[in-house]
Amino acid sequence: MLSSSTSTLRLHQPNRPHRPHPAAPAAGGATHLASPLRWRGHAPGAASLAPLRARAQRIRALDAAQPFDFESRAAGLLEERQRLKIAIVGFGNFGQFLARNFARQGHTLLAHSRTDHSALASTLGASFFTDPHDLCECHPDVVLLATSILSAEAVLRSLPVHRLRRNTLFVDVLSVKEFPKNLLLTSLPPDFDVICTHPMFGPESARDGWDGLPFVFDKVRVGDCPARRARAEAFLNIFEREGCRMVEMSCAEHDAHAAETQFLTHTVGRMLAMLELRSTPINTKGYETLLRLVDNTCSDSFDLYNGLFMYNKNSTELLNRLEWAMDSVKKKLFDGLHDVLRKQLFEGSPHAPNVSSSNVRK
Ligand code: NAP
């Protein structure tokens, strides 16, 4: 049985990070228990007691270390189980950005892209494969699709998925969600698991870490067996450990919201960029927010922005509403201006136009 896609927004309760236990307590505990012996070591005739003392010290140190040792071994085992072999397909700006954090958490990384990024990959400890057959033959636990929205279909079709393990987990991080969901469901064998995700941040906006930033996911298809559920959780846990705000949401809901949160933001950022705004000596806070918006949005590729438009059916309506909003604001201004001009031109009273207050807003 497969877990089905969700239609309502649920906030995922994060399992807080399984941070490694500090090494200090074991050593500290042993020192503490052994201290009376050390004190006795200064008594007369201590030499004859030396072998006994050494044995007791060994035993006490062992006793003291055991609980800590057990805990740290259990934590180590858990860490081991959470560790994944992840193949990133599309090793561009965003793929590399994700890889840095994956590598820091100790996952094994493989990468494949149109361009040869092998030098960069090796700095992250990732193995780069120019041939997707070689990548698939490494049998990753997870294949992460991080290619551009526009190229996703062609890239997916170029993967020899028959070389992968029979129930590999596929995850995408595309900024639109209904399109990759349908693509993955129709292109992959039915035994593959599918999770559609969207980290709602990027290299610019998450320069200082991922803590508190939203991570949207939809477990589109996860096989109902413990190992497959555990693998899905281990993948999601990567983002929980970084402190992301985990938001479980259907792909359709994501796209409806993202037209506003993302496409609108990017469109306004790109419109402002056309104005070539510059910093001035009298910047207000509002103006600085606009300058930052230009930086945040225009550092992403135009392909990404174009993908937000082409593959989210809600974007066209958003563009229409944006135009309508601009026209409405202009109309309000010009209506007032026309009233003033009419009075000046035809009623001959330049200083006291009796303009209705409802037409001119401050
Ligand atoms: P992008 O321009 O959307 O994608 C660049 C990636 O697509 C590179 O790996 C590039 O490969 C590959 N690519 C482009 N055209 C291709 C083609 N014709 N054939 C094969 N591969 C092609 O920029 P991005 O910022 O790296 O985004 C990657 C994905 O992450 C996108 O789906 C985007 O929506 C998503 N995402 C991005 C952000 C962000 O802040 N940047 C945030 C969340 C999600 P090469 O490098 O090998 O040329």
From TrEMBL:
Alphabetical UniProt keywords: Oxidoreductase
InterPro entries, per database record: 6-PGluconate_DH-like_C_sf, Arogenate_DH_2, NAD(P)-bd_dom_sf, P5C_Rdtase_cat_N, Prephen_DH, TYRAAT1/2, TYRAAT2_C
Biased composition annotated in UniProt, kind: Polar residues: 1-10
Pfam families assigned: F420_oxidored, TYRAAT1_C
GO molecular function: arogenate dehydrogenase (NADP+) activity; prephenate dehydrogenase (NAD+) activity; prephenate dehydrogenase (NADP+) activity
Location of region: Disordered: 1-31
Gene3D superfamilies on file: NAD(P)-binding Rossmann-like Domain
Key word Oxidoreductase present: yes
Occurrences of domain Prephenate/arogenate dehydrogenase (ranges): 84-362
GO biological process, one term: tyrosine biosynthetic process
Domain of life: Eukaryota
Official protein name in the record: Prephenate/arogenate dehydrogenase domain-containing protein
Species whose genome carries this gene: Miscanthus lutarioriparius
